[in-house]
Amino acid sequence: MFLTWETQPPLAWSPPSFTSSSLKAMDAADFDLNLLLFGPDCPSSCIEEIGLGKSPLPKPTIGKHRHPVSDPNESLRNELTQCQNCWVSKGPGVTFSRCGACKIEIYCVRPFFCKHPLEWLVLTGFSSQSKACQKKVWPSHKEKCEFNRITPISDNRSLRCLQKFTSKHRPVLADAAIRALELSLDIERSLHFVLAVFLRRRPDSQRPETSYFATGAGVIPFELIPAGRCEELKEQVRKLDEEHKKTGMDGGLFVVLMCWEERTMNIAPVGFSRDCFHPPGTPWKELLFAFLNEGVVK
Question: Smallest Cα–Cα separation from 231: which of 221, 246, 241?
Answer without folding.
Answer: 221
